[in-house]
Amino acid sequence: VKDLLPRGTKVIDLSADYRLNDAAEYQNWYGVEHPDAGRMAQTVYGLPELYRDRIKSAQLVANPGCYPTSAILALAPLLKAAAISPEGIIIDSKSGVSGAGREPKPHLHFPECNESVSAYGVGSHRHMPEIDQVLSDVAKSDVRVVFTPHLIPMDRGILTTCYAVPTVGRDDNSLLTILQDFYANEPFVRVSSALPATKHVAGTNFCDITARTVRGRVVVISAIDNLVKGASGSAVQNFNLMHGLPETAGLL
Amino acid sequence: VKDLLPRGTKVIDLSADYRLNDAAEYQNWYGVEHPDAGRMAQTVYGLPELYRDRIKSAQLVANPGCYPTSAILALAPLLKAAAISPEGIIIDSKSGVSGAGREPKPHLHFPECNESVSAYGVGSHRHMPEIDQVLSDVAKSDVRVVFTPHLIPMDRGILTTCYAVPTVGRDDNSLLTILQDFYANEPFVRVSSALPATKHVAGTNFCDITARTVRGRVVVISAIDNLVKGASGSAVQNFNLMHGLPETAGLL
Amino acid sequence: VKDLLPRGTKVIDLSADYRLNDAAEYQNWYGVEHPDAGRMAQTVYGLPELYRDRIKSAQLVANPGCYPTSAILALAPLLKAAAISPEGIIIDSKSGVSGAGREPKPHLHFPECNESVSAYGVGSHRHMPEIDQVLSDVAKSDVRVVFTPHLIPMDRGILTTCYAVPTVGRDDNSLLTILQDFYANEPFVRVSSALPATKHVAGTNFCDITARTVRGRVVVISAIDNLVKGASGSAVQNFNLMHGLPETAGLL
Amino acid sequence: VKDLLPRGTKVIDLSADYRLNDAAEYQNWYGVEHPDAGRMAQTVYGLPELYRDRIKSAQLVANPGCYPTSAILALAPLLKAAAISPEGIIIDSKSGVSGAGREPKPHLHFPECNESVSAYGVGSHRHMPEIDQVLSDVAKSDVRVVFTPHLIPMDRGILTTCYAVPTVGRDDNSLLTILQDFYANEPFVRVSSALPATKHVAGTNFCDITARTVRGRVVVISAIDNLVKGASGSAVQNFNLMHGLPETAGLL
After folding, report:
1. D227-to-B90, C206, D44, D209 alpha-carbon distances in Å
2. Is the pTM of this model over 0.90?
3. Would the CA dihedral through C131, C135, C141, C143 be positive or negative?
4. Of B101, C248, D49, D219, whose CA is between 20 and 30 Å from B60?
5. Out of C96, C104, C153, whose CB is closest to B109?
């Protein structure tokens, strides 16, 4: 990045290096001093549904993490509408194994993770501060989520189940209306009263979202393919925006 | 049951018929009038870790549901110790497909549910009132949980992730100590600081449990095999207790 | 078909009705009299790699079965070159569960077929006469294969391992050369010395093929996605040919 | 082994070191000189169904490989009865991923091997000479099989489909009778006209076998759990025999 930007090259960074905008927070979660701290605050977070205009004119875009994409798309509209409290948000995510990367490791060896489900990184996953930062920006107040990722025996897909406290009594329809209005013009977000499944978005750039109230609590559920909307698909979408191409070019 | 009990036969009922002790609640969730309402209140809920003495002398035991077993074993010790609030409890469960029964259905057809994860029965699953009832009995106050089950592409196993608000500031050790003390003499519950995985309990009657604090919230995670501790294994354990056999006979 | 053809409509029949060209053989394998026997012999078998010119001018094309596509593409070039004997051919196929259709059945219920492999239809699968017929046409002599399909716990894909007796001593290179020459201009067949895997062709219209000699026997292995090259992809390819479109239009 | 045997210790060797009885063959397949060649010929091959009496009095038993167990149990009775020719035998095996060992490797990484089937070690798998040796001993003539293993996306289990040429015309019943007679007193081999499935033997020491004729060719299919009858279960069975314990002790 330090070499490319001065040459005028536009960069979409798939790593986590420029997602956080605070150097101390970065050092706290990643264990090393940031080598380019001066650029952190001005980097655009590459989630088109929230930052489309800034992405269009950005030279450096930080491509979002897979879990944050699924959680932020589920919660941002409700926080922005002040329909849910910024406090007490719980995010319970379930991810296919490709989310853990290509390097063979004992816990990703087929006979170890097949036919099993488990939580990992409880309270320590690096996507937690990334979710905090973006949701705080949307809510215009400090958001600190409880985030628990789980490993699921499948190749791809993330299902994220979010729990939040509504600011006033809510029915299902009012929640869905807020989500539908927010995403009315989005090519890759589908809001519905139906419960999403990761298989319905596999191989696509779609994010499917629904919301319900259960005993006075708001439950929002989203599904993405972590390899597309949660990674490369999002990068292509950002590329299209940064280069003035049709936003959906090359995407299913 | 109506025929067997007058003959003196001891009955362990694997169905849900005698789990709830309130006829109106039963009718509300199951849609039919209970045909033997008079026996509901006196039936023993067959979870040995909570009701061992009553099971020993019972003639009719209601074998618990699979989700309730995983959720109640995780939460009961902390509620009993008043370490967590009875309000605001969230239970996010992940179950293998055998939990949905043997009957072939479209959404359980291999190519439909394989390589996918989804929530179902959000706010409407019949195990919710069962969990409420037992946790309320333990907490000696009204507990109404938010329970969300999910379908996972594997044969067997339930992982339940519970979120609760602590009554006072808690560290991980104090939570584990409460759980370890409560289950100190239990043959089939293993408390550990390690994160449980359903594969570690597959084919056994064990329930593995851990607890952590994350940003002031309590996270308790349990794993069982729904086909053993969540069903037939529990029934065998109850049978052993009702007939004065060693409690672990015939169980792995 | 009987209604559409007289109107001049071009038909690609995805069913098995017009794949066999002999009415008695049809009745023998399908258990019913063919309702349109007169059209059987003149229907074109829709495998472009063998019958491209006839498909281009056909009004009725019988789309091949998934197993036959994988077996015929593996064996036809070697039979045509008389590199293998038409006698003693063994075809051992492994298919994902989607090959068995969408209807929920007990043996396709997730907990029944997951984590298991088994043979089925041994000696009685209806794709056996279809393979015979096409390979006999290619070999210009009577071919009667031994075909054994197996059910594999995955969504999609067929791997077919064929065993044949070479007519003269053969090394791996001479086998690969015959295959490479035969498919030199084919857009969807890839011949290589590498062993194919169904995952490498998933979601695509490709058929990957390799061949080896083992102890004087020829082993030919092919991989397709049964839902694409083994079904709808093949139909699209035929559609393109029948309508003068680029053969690869709409296909990955 | 060189240290233990002189002390009088009985040894069941789970490795492949003493399975072959010819030092040159060992060096050919394993690429190193055998360090204890003098003991090779006298070591007993630990398949109780063939060598029970020798195992009982052996001090050193070579525990069989998983593939050889499944193939030899399927073919030995028919070779011994001279019902099939020792020439032209084809063995097509399908194994779960645990058969490839515990070490994480790229091709065993969950997202690599899940949802895929492929052949490997075609013509070069080290179990091939082991199968040859034992079947040659049974047939009292030189047997050289064509053996093709395949990797299946499941934890455990081997299904082996064998193809052989009958010596005289055979019907299914006569094949089954030979198998049933051979295994009449065996505690862990079940012969049936039903097609075996690996799930039916998972977690057990059973080997299920059937045989059919298809177009004049004999098809024999066997299923084992590679982690039990194909490894540790077989070792326990041998241990029981070597120590005069009931042969089924400790085995399901």
Report:
1. 39, 35, 21, 18
2. yes
3. negative
4. B101
5. C104
